[in-house]
Amino acid sequence: MATIVHGSDLHFGKPHDPEVAEAFLASTEELSPDLLVISGDFTQRAKVREYEAARSFLDRLPPVPRVVTPGNHDVPLYRAFERLVAPFRNYKTYIREQLDTVTRIPGLTVVSLNTAAPRRAIVNGRIRAHQLEFARAAFGEAPTEDLKAVVAHHHLAPAPDYEKDHPLPRARRILDALKAMGVELIMGGHLHRAYIGNSMDVYPGRDRSRGIVIVQSGTTTSRRGRARERAKNSFNVVRLRDGYLEVTHHMYFSERGGFAPVSMHAFPRFPNRWFHWGSIESQLPSNPGDPGKPPRKGGP
To answer: Which end of the chain is flanked by fewer CB atoms within 10 Å, N or C?
Structure first.
């Protein structure tokens, strides 16, 4: 079993909330993840001092493998010349030199794709053909038993609420391409509220036998939550179980002084199309909010 802590949209700068950031650090220590994912928007205006603060924060996270990707706020907005000539200069200096990456841990291959498009789309992003080829090559080299996952800042499926966000251009073609590569999980941000579901919720796809699990994180450490997570903060925990994926959505509560789980979701892993309840029962914690509790014994 592998555990992934997935946060997003830290927004170091004016919207950043230091108190919530400390609570997120405490949660990551308690959860003991095997992998950390931060899906973009480390800064508010891509300024050096914001990146310095973001780098300092990242250095305090648990020393486990990490997957990062730029967001649209990680490139200059008002510094037009810099945005055209060297849009990712500060990101590469303080976060990571590579924009598209492959990360492998036992049982899991994660491809991170940079969807920020500073010269063409300031807010909305893009995934280009060469990036899909990059992903196809990486997944082609992955062990057959690995779960294949993609991290991208911008969303391929809109949240099911009244804000009616538009997904990435050509989102349906991209979903079909990723599904053909065997991708089972997509993690992202940008929406500033969580969405945990399946790509078939919005697009059945060419292959209707299965979809891709979509896990969007809200803003983890800023005051820019939207819609049902207005003025709220959240992150997700993804656990690879025997035959299925478990996703727990965590939200910050000031009265608690930290994050707490508010919902749990489970999805059969390919090639399974349904749950094998016996194996799931044996893995359920007696207290879903406390991953340290021993497994449930006996019947339901």
So the answer is: C
Q: Residue 296 domain-assigned?
A: no
Domain containing residue 40: CATH number: 3.60.21.10
Q: Is residue 250 one of the residues assigned to a domain?
A: yes
297 burial level (CB within 10 Å; 0-12, 13-18, 19+): exposed
Count structural domains, the chain: 1
- What is the distance between the alpha carbons of residues 216 and 249, in angstroms, rounded to a whole number? 10
Phi then psi dihedrals of residue 274, to 5 deg = -150, 170
Taking the C-alpha atoms of residue 240 and residue 3, their distance in angstroms, rounded to an integer, is 7
Question: What are the pLDDT digits (tens) for 32-50?
Answer: 999 999 999 999 999 999 9
Q: Averaged over 52-75, what is the pLDDT?
A: 97
Q: Tell whether 299 is covered by a domain.
A: no
Report the predicted TM-score, pTM, of the whole model to 2 decimal places. 0.91
Report the candidate in 15, 10, 117, 23 with the shortest Cα–Cα distance to residue 55.
Answer: 10
Virtual CA dihedral for 92, 54, 191, 230, nearest 10 degrees? Answer: -170
Alpha carbon distance 147, 261 (integer Å)? 24
Burial of 254 (0-12, 13-18, 19+ CB in 10 A): exposed
